[in-house]
Amino acid sequence: MVQEKLGGRGDVACFRVGGAATPSRARFVFTNPELGMTVEAAEQEYCVVLCVTNAKSVQDPWPNILTKIGVDLDNVGDVLMSEGSIYLAVTPEVAKQCTRLLPKEVVGAGVNVNTLEPGEAMPLTGDLQDMEVQRLDKRAQYAQKGNK
Fold this sequence. Notes:
The protein contains five helices and seven strands.
């Protein structure tokens, strides 16, 4: 909708960067069209897509995991789960933090966090995660562990 409204204007260039093909949390880059910025340049400068592999099914929702490692959700775009991998669109400012800390926070043997190369994109299919922090009732978790 934002791109449609600004698409015909000559004084503003608008690019959607990162995220899934049909994003729920898109990042937009607004610039002067006379600067000649391309979509590819905007993608490289304002968005990093990370791929998390070898992660077991996660107990906590992804927003909770990201906030545990100190990532503000304003710096996170779409989180997509596809074919056993998790794809995260984040700002360059938090990409290194996610790369270093996610393997320690996510359960699994040999959890890897890799940066997708420029031009690579998130898969077209998968489960887009809701990016709201959920408060979990610890008593219910302990009761489930006690019953197992």
